[in-house]
Each structure stands twice: as structure tokens, then as C-alpha cells.
Amino acid sequence: MGTVRLTAAQALVRYLSQQRTELEDGPAPLFAGVWAIFGHGNVAGLGDALARRTQTLPTYRGHNEQAMAHAAIAYAKARNRLQMMAVTTSIGPGATNMVTAAALAHVNRLPVLLLPGDVFADRRPDPVLQQIEDPQDATVTANDAFRPVSRYFDRITRPEQLLNALPRAIQTLTDPAACGPVTLALCQDVQTQAYDFPDAFFEPTMRRPRRPAPDPDELAQAAEALAGAEQPLVVAGGGVQYARANARLADFARAHGLPVAETQAGKGTLAWDHPCNVGSVGVTGSSAANALAAEADVVLAIGTRLQDFTTASRTLFQNPQLRQINLNVAAADAGKHGALPLVGDAGTTLAALDDRLDGYCAPEAWRRRMADEKQVWDEIVARTTAHSNAERPSDMAVIGAVNRAAGPSDTVVCAAGGLPGELHKLWRAQGPGTYHVEYGYSCMGYEIAGGLGAKMADPSREVFVMVGDGSYLMLNSEIATSVMLERKLIVVLLDNQGFGSIHRLQQACGGAPFNNRFANTTYNRQVSVDYAAHARALGAEAEKVQGIADLEAALHRARLSECSYVVVIETDPDASSDAGGAFWDVAVAEVSGDPKTRRARTDYEAQRQNQRMT
Q: 545 forms bridges with which residues in the sheet?
């Protein structure tokens, strides 16, 4: 067996460039590139190695480490986890800037390879610049912060450790159940050290996603429950899309007369006008989906973590005879909420269920109910998102204008604040890939970087980034990167002068407006930000508009532009949609001298009585 002498960094880069994946149009690199901000912890090692392999593993430079990781995560989401990216940073703050993004990827089960620089393994120059020192444990470094937010973590202290660490990393990144962030902390001296690696280690390797079939006993139980359902409901999560089972579910639902409600990650699984699509579910759910959920006697939850927004903090499913089936590739998710577990790939398992349910169809009365509720909800959406003449329109009116401007294959990207809730309810997704909202971690600052990742994943789509002024101020630097990479974004910036979503939640919980909108802070001087001027300074085209008519005209100009385009519009900070929705468990003060807070606490305690704990 032959060997090749390489540094650890060179070996890592060569190995990543040899990993392959199978896409619909044929084989492709598993890693589409590496995002990098170089510093003293990675520039001489990994930076040098990357510079010599730009043809097989492109390197992209961002402006913020968290944003680079967000872009990489969004890329993987838009590619249904079949392709991914790596992110490298220096030691210290460059590394810890990625911890938030690692948590986001962990929650959303999305693959990203994080390669932060680390201390010297030989410790000769200790303490090096930016090194964290623990007087009780000399092995601790800043990168230990990644341990709880990584699906696999390793610290590379010798070059030959890569022979075990890299295959384990790839296995985690490509496993449908274990998928999530992997952190390989790279000691900076080790990056430059050489070892005689086996030639076979660098052979091209095809990584195809595993499609596990269900256990026969679990399948039989699930089929029996569904076959006896009088009022069945399907809840579609992101796992349906990652399994590429969208068409399978659409056919399955139509064949058996099953209403399908969608989580945030699952939205777009079915086109909004599919006859079985009853809309979003849970806290930000449609009236149709939530009404059916309250009465459902069998719920088939597919590819969802069943977090509190999906289950309305466990108050949504109220039928005392409820039987819940959790179809999930991860056993931990399949066993949640006292459900019948059904562990398996969504597409493979739906095909098996379809065979078992041959001849079954939901009762005609339930199917009529589905159609009636859907029609009512579709009319509500049309009214709520209709053209508005208000000087400061609502978020809902802005969403309607952007939705009308978007083409059938275009993508909307959003993350935190009030917008994701309204988008979940009101955006009419045309199908898979058209709705990209990060709401597992609800991370402010994801929007623009995530939009860039989505655009890089599919440049043929127009990407509409919807972002509030609060998130924009947190993390906007990748507008400049989008200009540099010629990956055009259309950014619609809704300016409600602060953190409007939490401003509304604060008052709903009985509090007085405080420290959320600029007008409610204790500062003597209020700041007025010229967001359009700021966006132009980053290289984008930008304009500020007033009202929906001006917004629609600006969106037309933005579509014609070849450069990233930012449209700023002031919106009503107090308006929110009262259509649909459900309880969300946000604790209210138990003792207060304010009558408003006491009333909110009384309402809160009454709602908690409806929570199902099994």
C-alpha cells in the first residue's frame, strides 16, 4: 500500500475534495466549498492548503464567522442535506462566533463541518494569543464551547488522528438520524505537521443517503391505527423534504383523503392549493389545520421534532381518544409525546403504509370538513394579505405584496421575530424549495446570510429575504458578500423601529412597553437609521418606499436588477394577524401589582390546563 506525505491540513482538504454525493442530475462533490476567515489559528495551516485546491474545493470569504456558518447551513437546507459546506476560523473569537450557528444547525438537524483553529498541541508557546486558560484543567480551550452543540466533536492533536476523525465526521454529517454540525478543532501547530497517509484514504467515495425501512411490527401498528381512523390528520415536518418524499406524501394524502398540516420546516411540502393542504399548524397555524387538529383521532406526524410551536405547547390535540404516530428516521423523535413510534425513512415508510392501507379512505364527512375549512382559510389569507393603502402597512400586507411578486419557483427566506409567524400562516408556497424559514432556533441574523446560502444552492431562483430592522442591525454584512459573489438577493426590510414582535409579546403577557422599540427605551436620544443608505454603502442597490403601491413598483425594479437590491418600508409595529393561531406557553409573572399582569396570569393558568403531558 502506497503512502503520500502531507500536512494534516493538506490531508483534510484532499479528503474533503474526494467525497462525492448523488444528485438528481448525477454525481457531484459532497462539499460545495469552504467558508473562511483566516487568522493566526488557521492561515498558515488550513489556509495554505485551501489555496492550493481552489479548483476542487472553492474557498469563500465572508465578513462574520456566524454569518458564514449560517450561509453554509442554509446551503445544506436548500440542497436537502445532500450537499454541504465547511467553515474555518481562527482561534478565539473567530471560533466562538460560530457557536450560535452550531446550535442552530444542531436544532434543525442540518449538516455543517466546523473547522475552528485551536491552541498549540505541544503547548510550547502557551498561553498563545486568544487562548482560554482554565487553572483547573489544562486541556480546556474555547472550542470546548462547541461540545454541547455538535453532533460529533473532536480535537485534532496529531495528524494521523484524521484517519479516524474524518470518516466519523462524514458519517455523522450524512446520516439521516445523526445529521447535524460536526466540529473538528484543529490545533494550529498540528495543521502544519506532516504524516505519511495511505493513498487509499484519498480514494473518491460516494455518499448516498440511507433510506431505512420501518420495523414490521411498528408498521403494522401504525397501519392498524390509521385504518381505523375516523378523523385522521397528517403533520408534515422538514423530514419529508429531506427524504425527498414530497410527491409521495401528496399522492398518499390524496389517495386516502388525509388533511395535511405543515410545520415551519415542512411548509412547501405540498403546494398551497393542493386539495389536502390545510395550511400551517400550531401556534402560528391556520384556522383550518388547528380546528382539524383539535378533533383528530389519529395524527400521523412525519419528520418533525414536535416542538412547542407545532403542538401549541401540547394543547393542540384535544381528542381524548387520540392515537399519535410519529414517523421519523430518528428514534428519539419517533418516541415523543407517548406516540406509536414508526422509525424509518419518510418516503420508504409512506410507500409501505400505502400498501397496507389499500382501500382505506377517510370518511366522506371528514373530507368535506377538510375542504370547507380549507376554503374558509384560503379566503381569510386573501383578505389578510390584500393590497393596503395604509401609510404604514401591516406585516401581512407586505407579505401579500412580496408573495404576489414572487414567481412560482422563487424562494422566501426569513428567521426570527414576528415575520416567521405571519409567513407560516399567510405565505402561499408553490412547492418544495420555495419557503425557507429558520424557526427551530429562531435566530436573529440568519436572514441575509441564509438568503445568500440559499441563492448559492440554486442561483436560478430569485431569493426574497424578508427581515425586520432589528435582525438587520444584528447581522447585515453578507449583503457585501452577495455583491462580491454576484449572488443577487432581494431584501425586503420591514422597519418597525425596534423589536416589534417582542414589543407585542411583552404587552400580551401583561407588561408595559419597555426596551424593545426605540421609543420605549431609557435613552435620551433616539436614533433614526437610513437603512437604504447603509445597504448602498455595502454595494447593493437600495431604496426606501412608502406604502404597498410603492413597494410593488420597487419589487418590479428589484427583479430587473442584476445586483442585490434592498427595499425598505416602514410598517405598523402594533398590527398582527388575529386569524388562526393557538396557545404558546410563555410564563407570566405569578405575583404582580399590575391588574393587567394579573389578568394575563389568570388567562395563562387557564390555558395550561389544556396541556397534554402524555
A: 569
Beta strand pairing call for 26-29 and 19-23: antiparallel
Q: Distances in Å between the alpha carbon of 166 and those of 153, 189, 343, 547, 601?
A: 11, 18, 27, 53, 52
Q: What is the pTM of this model?
A: 0.97
Instruction: Please state, rounded to an integer, the average pLDDT across all residues of the chain.
Output: 96
Closest by CA to 262, choosing from 454, 431, 25, 34, is 431
CATH topology of domain 216-378: Rossmann fold (3.40.50)
CATH 3.40.50.970 correct for 385-570: yes
Contacts of 140 (CB under 8 A, 6+ apart): 132, 134
Q: Which CATH number fits domain 3-207: 1.10.10.10, 3.40.50.2300, 3.40.640.10, 3.40.50.970?
A: 3.40.50.970
| 3-state SS assignment for residue 182 | strand
Peptide bond into 127 cis (omega under 30): yes
Length reported for the chain: 614
| Residue (of 241, 235, 178, 212) closest to 352 by Cα position | 212
Instruction: Read off the pLDDT of residues 548-581 as tens digits, 9 standing for 90 and up.
Output: 999 999 999 999 999 999 999 999 988 888 889 9
SS3 of residue 198 by DSSP: strand
Grid coordinates standing for 487?
A: 449572488
Residues of the chain with CATH 3.40.50.1220: 216-378
129 exposure class (CB count in 10 Å sphere: 0-12, 13-18, 19+): exposed
